[in-house]
Fold these 4 entries.
Entry 1:
Amino acid sequence: MFLYENDLKEAFFDKYKNRDNIKNYSFEIARLGGMDLVTVEYFADKYEFNAFEFKLSDIKKAILQSKYNLKYVHKSWIVLPEEKKDVIQNKYYTEIKQIKGLGVILVKESGYYDIFIKAYRNDEERILLNQDLLKLAVFSKI
């Protein structure tokens, strides 16, 4: 069990950052309120922006923030402790599945994670770019 949101973020990213397809990342990217983590990733012959919102308990807020992030990214992930699986399954699963680009990742204390609800790529023509996202892409570690 995670005591602080930052512990969840650190445990998850310690494992996630080792993926070969991650070209760059930044924590707290600007938008109204900020995105907890944004990555530039190369997937299926395309570059894409992924946003991650980390929450320990306020799932409704995580859904709202992640939906808002979809204006700026191809995929938006809600990252929760693994013990929230039943709550997601019983209360929010259908709602989340209906939103293209939205997904859920469940994290164990060890940092290992499972994709519980897969996010499908958001339509590119709908994405708004801002200066922080452009800087992240331009200065990537490709």
Entry 2:
Amino acid sequence: MRLGLIGLGRIGAFHADTLSHLDEVDSLVVTDAVPAVTASVAERFGAEPAESPAALIGSGVDGIVIAAATDAHTALIKAGVDAGIPVFCEKPLSGVVDEAVAIAEYVHASGVPVQIGYPRRFDPAYLAAREALAGGELGWVHTVRSTTLDPAPAPRGYIAVSGGIFRDCSVHDFDSVRWVTGREVVEVYATGSARGDDFFAELGDVATAQALLTFDDGATAVVSNTRYNPRGYDVRLELHGTTDSVVAGWTESTPLRNLEPDTSWPSDKPWTFFMDRLTNAFRAELAAFTEVVAGQRPSPCTVDDALAVTWIAEAATLSLHEHRPVRIDEVQK
């Protein structure tokens, strides 16, 4: 198949590498807002350069992968859908809620498959946790814990346009707990601290956050996030049920220093970058997209999934600022 890749920054270049090595991809067309970047990536991975997204879509591609800036997502999704070709787009649908709702409705009306990039769905341990719960191994789950701890904050310029920690970082946890449990979140209570660089408080954001999620069956999840975890990039998920408990993300590279006597675990170098922690998951989600393009499977992460996460993030943000629990149906439009 012939695929197009729009946006060639850090994650886009990684996707170019992945796509260029997939047996299912016969040819790859790439484009970026910076022509020199387009030329460089095309040469590096043996891809065909295109001068614009429109030229790329018009070049006969069977599907497109969008790794462009967030504010371009909705327009590019629409362009792909209008061309009748399957679309993979990095999260989020949009940084503007009304736009996210509108593009989701547009995709529904088109019938064209769109996959949103939440790579933890393709992490083997997260998948195993989901299967263990669905298979009855855990009994019924009462407690879920999900963690994303970044080694260091992004620059002020990025934080200023990120939408805040819940919309930018926590959404990965929100999607994970919803997908793994198969339950819908009905209420959120969130809190946080701006302790750290001054710009977090200046921007009305927090550097560390906790969100307590209540599911529709009464179970609860605690989502923990921070921009300051210098030991490494810590992504974990725990499920505690009435018959068993499981964890994803506990390996020899988990960035924790164990103080138990006579215990050497974990012994390897800690993860320090999200691409290191989730390399295989990022590659697997694009392999899955080739199956979507080939008509072999439906989208494994739909616009509805992305919209559900958007509502959780909106509820968490409102809860943070108003210091109260917020029901999901309060923020839904």
Entry 3:
Amino acid sequence: MELKEKITLDMLTKDSVSVLRQQFLTFNGEEMQVGGNIRNAYMNSKSGREQLKTVLSDEYYNAVMAVWGDNPTVDEPMIEESEET
């Protein structure tokens, strides 16, 4: 029995990417998925690039950077503080 992870870079645009992770088990020559799909989206922002670097191998990260280029295209999300009255 061999367990392997498949990673799919889905919906890759200049502004974002969706990373799909799937676990597969090979048993008696037949491949079957174990568990559910895990999908995370990342924006082409400074923090999105940093997050992506920590979760992807260089091979996948470099593929995304080939589309995204050298500079982020999305501003960092603004966190608004609410005033209590």
Entry 4:
Amino acid sequence: MMKGFKDKVVLITGAGRGSGRNLALAFGQSGAIVAANDISPVNVEAVVDEINRQGGHAKAYIEDVAKKLGVQNIIKQVEDDFGGIDILINHASVEPHVPLLDMDEWDWHRVLDVNLTGAFLMTQSAGRVMREKGSGVIFFLITAPTRDEKKEAAFVATMHGLRGLAGQAAQELSPHGVHVLTIESQGREVVEKIFSLLDSLEEAE
């Protein structure tokens, strides 16, 4: 289906840091067009500059994925700039590191808004574009804590929510040629797993 990554439009949320940054750089090196989103311009613009310096093609989109208008702006701008979206990677997330008994309502809502609502809004808007085209791939990045790693309540709740959202999105979008997949990993393994899955999808076509 993908026929390699050259000139494929890859939209990555939370692309300024962590796995989002690693994925943006990897796709840029592979010939894809990288649409890199983050709420803060500092890190994501550095990522975009690095990709472009290396001969790749990338552009930054500074918006809050927790806001519907922001998401609509991203999708419209990417469509205007590159003509569509081939791959969406939902990576944007926040984690305040506040224990359940100490967490205030603002922290709780902000984590749910970014991690879960953001993925919903991005998947909904990009999914409509992909449905019209009849193809596309949407990834949900889920951070699964290790046995010795402590995560706080709101973050863990959103990770479970993402699994459910991804499953339902897969059911609704698969008849339209859109693949929805979850990646439960951390670090550079994320890049390897996503590239491997995309290769498998291409071979299956």
